[in-house]
Amino acid sequence: MKLRIKLRTVAILLKIAAVGIAWPQAVAAQTASALSLDQLLSYPFPSNVVASPVGATIAWTFNERGVRNIYAAEGPEFAARKITSYGDDDGQELTNLSFADDGGTIVYVRGGDHGANWPAEGNLMPNPASSPTQPHMQVWAVSIKGGAPRLLGEGDSPVIAPHTNRVAFVREHKIWIAPLDGSKPAELAFFAKGSSEAPAWSPDGQTLAFVSNRDDHSFVALYTVATQPIRYLAPSTSRDSAPAWSTDGRQIAFVRQPGRGGVPRSLLAQPPAPWSIWVSDVANGTAREVWASGNKAVDSIPGVEGGGRVQWAAGGRLVFLSYQDGWPHLYSVPSAGGQALLLTPGNFWIEFSTLTADRRFVVYNSNAGTDRYDIDRRHLYKVPVDTAAPAPLTSGRGIEWEPVVTGDGKFVAYIASDAQRPPLPAVIPFEGGAPRTLAADRLPANYPSAQLVTPESVIVRSSDGVEVHCQLFKAAGGTAKRPALVYVHGGPQRQMLLGWHYMYYYANDYAANQALASRGFIVLSVNYRLGIGYGHAFHNPERGGARGASEYLDVLAAGQYLQTRDDVDTKRIGIWGGSYGGYLTALALGRNSDIFAAGVDIHGVHNWDRQGRPAPDLKSAYAGDGILEDDLKQAARVTYESSPISAVPTWKSPVLLIHADDDRNVEFHQTVDLKKRLMEKGVKVEELVIPDDIHDFLLWSNWQTVTTAAGTYFEKMFLKE
Questions:
Q1: Which terminus of the chain, N or C, has fewer Cβ atoms within 10 Å?
Q2: Shortest CA distance to 96 belongs to which of 169, 166, 186?
């Protein structure tokens, strides 16, 4: 998002980023311990941890200054080694890692945009490096011993068939199959109406379950061989998804939701999204409901990590995540039906979860803990699938996530960070013991961990009484009043933590906040309502987003809190954020230029009518079916007033707008439109446009450009001599 930025200013910002230096030396000299953003962003970011089904081998990906590769380690030593040899910052993702059943091969996907809200025109893959050769999203296989990867075909979401060494994957909404050894090209598996997705092999590798999506309804279907018809399990007008095989291959559990339709509702309403779990007999295709949610908002299918997924556990039990008690918790229910058992009682949040190889335990991470600040951290736990007896695996002031259990059941592998040390993979014995960090040598030897500040937990209260958790970044030293910034995360289903974040986007923002603090800024990161970590009511507030922007009260409270601090210069308070954080940054600058003197708005939403909102059925509305004309007018008014464009008349503070023009999450036009509106109002606007990259900035060099430009802008606004 950019506003009338002078070409000379853009050139300066790009030049600073391109050479990878710190922010202007004259400014940096104002603080003795100013950190180079180039150095701070040089950490390797691990993700996609997977475990072999046999032995104690694990694998993960590292993003090292934009160069993405797969690493592996074998227990009990767990010495990390690189098994692919990609060498460029080319913006091609590495995702969807999985092991073959013998542990000797890893299948993965290279390319694509797995965080997109919609596909690009023509379904083109991202080309952030502006290559004249069109990139593709491809499925590859590589030996755990290394060597040249084998191309299996273009596609996504690969699953390996046990015993038969076939790989099924999705390409252009159809399912294709290729041999694991790449000995022949992939072939279209079958013809089926609608979109075919979510393939899942039976335990014997002979039958493929998949979801046949028909838009307003969907089926769980079975394909075996070309000479037999596709079978549909208990077809209905509902939307069925997430098929999960029983260990003996005789049953499939799946999630069922009502089909789309019914009487139209007001656009300001938040209707519940009830759901149920069904189990089908594979032999005859009949199915029965074994668990059903209630019909209140809190009973809705959880829109969080792990929500809407069923795991088949030992003893014929099904493990799933539900929000029904106000927190997303793990439950288990007998596959024959019966009372669901709450496995993880308490006021805390469950995220990444996985079953042990024997399916007797669930390992998960949560913001529970004995320390009162653990609500803003993550720790690992394990719990039996049939008993509400959680036990901690990790504790302390660190942050742990993405656990997997090795095939031999002896170790839990995961990723860990703390306030000073960026994320790295780690292992801990399943039965308890000391954790061990892996691949620590991949962190540059000169990485300035010791110079990073430990964020301080701060709680502010909004004008309507909502308690809001924040993290304050402040470097030691000096008595003069300092400039301050409110940082607003995106999502909005995110929670910033008291340390390095588990998402690459927010880990980079954490690094930027550390750099800002080292230059004399006080930075307050605000966990506004609509975010996760604090329960259903906080996550699903009334009048949130386009329905009234009630979450802005939390951002305003953060700015007002900074005004009360003796160490803050109240005339030098700014605000910055990306995506939903860009939206709230724009609202703040428009509504409260009296508090926020400048801002950096990175790919924010500025007009809710341009952000994927379905058009109501006006003909039915005028006829009296559901939405009435007065409802539509009220919804249009609230939607407009919740959009930053409505606050342009009172917008006075200067802003830097940043946006990549292949954004598949927030339409680039959001920034084009806002720039024109602000220019007509006479607001001082600068812009930075990133050609060909996407919402999450696939190129490391673009992250460097964007964060450097943001820091340079605030120093120009608030630290100039």
A1: C
A2: 169
Give burial (CB, 10 Å; 0-12/13-18/19+) of 16: buried
How many angstroms separate the CA atoms of 451 and 200, rounded? 47
H or E segment to which residue 631 belongs: helix 629-641
If we measure between CA atoms, which residue out of 149, 153, 160, 226 comes closest to residue 189?
226
Cβ pair 126, 112 in contact under 8 A: yes
Task: Note whether 502 and 378 are within 8 A (CB).
Answer: yes
Q: Give yes or no for a contact between 468 and 528, defined as CB atoms under 8 angstroms apart.
A: yes
pLDDT of residue 269: 81
Per residue in 105-126, pLDDT (tens digit) is 999 999 999 999 988 877 899 9
Give the C-alpha separation, 637 to 515, whole Å. 41
* Other Cβ atoms closer than 10 A to 308: 16
Q: Which residues of 400-438 are buried (b: 16+ CB within 10 A; e: fewer)?
A: bbbbbbbbbeebbbbbbbbbbbbbbbbbbebeeeebeeb
CA distance linking residue 163 with residue 155, whole number of Å: 22
498-513 in b/e burial notation, b at 16+ Cβ within 10 A? bbbbbbbbbbbbbbbb
**Structure tokens belonging to residue 170:** 């999705």
Longest dimension (CA), the chain: 80
Return the pLDDT at 619: 60
- On whether the pTM is more than 0.85, the answer is yes
Which two tokens mark 345? 């009682």
Give the model's pLDDT for residue 17: 36
At residue 21, the pLDDT reads 33
CB 555 within 8 A of CB 528: yes
Residue 22 scores a pLDDT above 60: no
* Assigned token pair, 346: 């308490």
Collapsed DSSP state (helix, strand, coil) of residue 122:
helix
92 Cβ partners below 8 Å, 6+ apart? Answer: 68, 86, 110, 111, 135, 698
The string of pLDDT tens digits covering residues 288-345 is 999 999 999 999 999 899 999 999 999 999 999 999 999 999 999 999 999 999 999 9
Tell me the C-alpha distance between 356 and 363, whole Å: 7
**Cα–Cα–Cα angle for 371, 374, 375, rounded to 5 degrees:** 130
Phi, psi of 326, deg, nearest 5: 95, -5
**Are β-strands 568-578 and 482-488 bridged in parallel, bridged antiparallel, or unpaired?**
parallel
Q: How many whole angstroms separate alpha carbon 588 and alpha carbon 609?
A: 19
What is the dihedral sign for C-alpha 367, 372, 373, 379? Answer: negative
Over the stretch 652-689, which tens digit does the pLDDT of each residue have?
Answer: 999 999 999 999 999 999 999 999 999 999 999 999 99
Place 623 in a pLDDT band, splitting at 50, 70 and 90: low
Instruction: For strands 391-392 and 399-405, give the pairing.
Output: unpaired
- Identify whether 492 is preceded by a cis peptide bond (ω within 30 of 0): yes
Q: Which helix (H) or strand (E) holds 70?
A: strand 67-74
274 exposure class (CB count in 10 Å sphere: 0-12, 13-18, 19+): middle
Q: Are 665 and 603 in contact (CB under 8 A)?
A: yes
**Which of 186, 179, 217, 213 lies closest to 198, judged by CA?**
213
Q: What is the pLDDT of residues 236-284, one digit of tens each?
A: 999 999 999 999 999 999 999 999 988 877 778 888 999 999 999 999 9
DSSP secondary structure string for all residues of 318-379: EEEEE-TTSS-EEEEEETT--PPEESS-SS--EEEEEE-TTSSEEEEEES--SSTTGGGS-E
Q: Which two tokens stand for residue 600?
A: 């950096």
374 vs 236: CA distance, rounded Å: 44
Q: State the distance between the two ends of the chain, measured CA to CA, in whole angstroms.
A: 28
